[in-house]
Amino acid sequence: MDTKEFAVRHLMPISLIVISILVFFYLIYFHRIFILMIALYLLIVSIALTLIYTGKTIAMYLKLRKFHKRLRKEIEKFKE
To answer: How many CA atoms lie within 13 A of 50 on its CB side?
Structure first.
């Protein structure tokens, strides 16, 4: 996985969560309940996005691993 792909898949969603948490606590401090509800919604959305990106990455890894196992078996058959 190259650096650009890593940044897109992991760092951007994680930074969204951090920013959402900071905004959430800032709004708790000032007791603005309506804006607080919006911030809570954004926090939930950013966590969901992170889970989606992470899930896609894990699924790709598992597919790649399965492909390599199959490829190794084919190579062993070819050697025999």
So the answer is: 16
Q: Which amino acid is at 50?
A: T
Q: What is the pLDDT of residue 63?
A: 79
Q: How many residues does the chain have?
A: 80
pLDDT at 4: 65
Could you tell me the two tokens for 72? 């190794």
Domain containing residue 36: 3-79
Stretches in the chain below the pLDDT threshold 50 = none
8 A C-beta contact, residue 46 and residue 13: yes
Residues 24 and 41: their CA atoms lie apart, in Å, by 10
Give this prediction's pTM: 0.40
Burial of 39 (0-12, 13-18, 19+ CB in 10 A): buried
